[in-house]
């Protein structure tokens, strides 16, 4: 098997901390960028011990490149690129927190490169789809979305994406919040969104359910309390991961880092100082 294609990614240090304490690396979701993790980083820094907090922008998102090579867009390639980006900044081993697509990337890293993972926080994430028919249906749906963004452009895609049932709970946050999220998403590039859907969508990803029992890092599995689908996924993952704990964040739907950053931060801080031993 060939090595995953590594893309040089943009990363930003959001908070400083002592070298003796493990850094925390934040991985955003599809259509996101480092800015979508800032409020979470600030809340973690306020609640917990000082530690360096980084945000990495995934392939084709934010200021990271969007390669032409389809091999750069697979989830294993995302994981290898994220690890390389942090190694280039002097961070080899870290606590990895990933939301949605970022969670699938973080889990892939834990399954393939355990030596890089001190602890794992997965937020609204899954190990992929175990059923082949479900994967095929999801690939077809993502291909239709990819074709639509190329045909209709980013503004039309963003309106469609923000109308998805997963994100309806964000309406209660108000017009200013929604306008800010829309503006951030409008900064995406159509070819990059299409390539991400085709290469890193849940249907394109090889499922990791069978790998979960081999992931030995302490893992916190988080879902929004209003996100029934991903609460069920997190429960199923917790039954297979050897050192997993669960937390639901009250008042939040799927996008917990932007809907309830303070609640997520509190859960993360408790986890890192909790039952599995302090993560220094």
Return the average pLDDT rounded to an integer. Answer: 94
The topology string of helices and strands comes to EEHEHEHEHHHHEHEHH
* SS element count, helices: 10
Say what the CATH topology of the domain at 11-128 and 206-272 is: Rossmann fold
Nearest-angstrom radius of gyration? Answer: 17 Å
Strand order of the largest sheet: 1-3-2-4-5-6-7
Helix content: 40-55%
Write the CATH homologous superfamily of the domain at 11-128 and 206-272. Answer: Alpha/Beta hydrolase fold, catalytic domain
Instruction: Let me know the largest β-sheet.
Output: 7 strands, mixed
Beta-strand portion reads: 5-15%
Number of strands: 7
Q: Stretches where pLDDT falls below 50 for ≥5 residues?
A: none
Shape: globular
Oligomer: single chain
The CATH class designation of the domain at 11-128 and 206-272 is Alpha Beta
What is the CATH architecture assignment of the domain at 11-128 and 206-272?
A: 3-Layer(aba) Sandwich
Termini gap: 35 Å
- Determine the structural class based on helices, strands and strand pairing: alpha/beta
């Amino acid at each position: 098997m060939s090595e995953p294609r590594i893309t040089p990614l943009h990363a930003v240090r959001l908070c400083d901390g002592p070298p003796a304490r493990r850094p925390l690396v934040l991985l955003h979701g599809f259509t996101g960028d480092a800015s979508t993790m800032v409020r979470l980083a600030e809340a973690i820094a306020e609640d917990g011990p000082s530690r360096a907090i980084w945000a990495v922008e995934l392939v084709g998102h934010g200021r990271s490149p969007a390669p032409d090579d389809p091999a750069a867009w697979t989830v294993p390639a995302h994981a290898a690129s994220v690890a390389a980006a942090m190694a280039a900044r002097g961070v080899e081993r870290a606590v990895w927190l990933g939301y949605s697509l970022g969670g699938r990337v973080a889990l892939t890293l834990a399954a393939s490169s355990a030596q890089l993972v001190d602890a794992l926080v997965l937020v609204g994430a899954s190990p992929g789809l175990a059923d082949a028919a479900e994967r095929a249906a999801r690939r077809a749906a993502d291909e239709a979305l990819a074709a639509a963004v190329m045909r209709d452009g980013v503004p039309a895609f963003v309106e469609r994406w923000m109308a998805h049932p997963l994100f309806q709970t964000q309406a209660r946050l108000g017009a200013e919040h929604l306008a800010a999220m829309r503006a951030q998403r409008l900064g995406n590039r159509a070819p990059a969104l299409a390539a991400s859907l085709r290469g890193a969508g849940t249907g394109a990803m090889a499922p990791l359910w069978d790998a979960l029992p081999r992931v030995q890092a302490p893992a916190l599995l988080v879902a929004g309390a209003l996100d029934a689908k991903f609460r069920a996924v997190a429960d199923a993952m917790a039954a297979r991961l050897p050192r997993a704990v669960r937390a639901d964040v009250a008042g939040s739907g799927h996008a917990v880092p932007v809907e309830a950053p303070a609640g997520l931060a509190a859960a993360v801080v408790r986890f890192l100082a909790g039952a599995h031993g302090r993560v220094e």
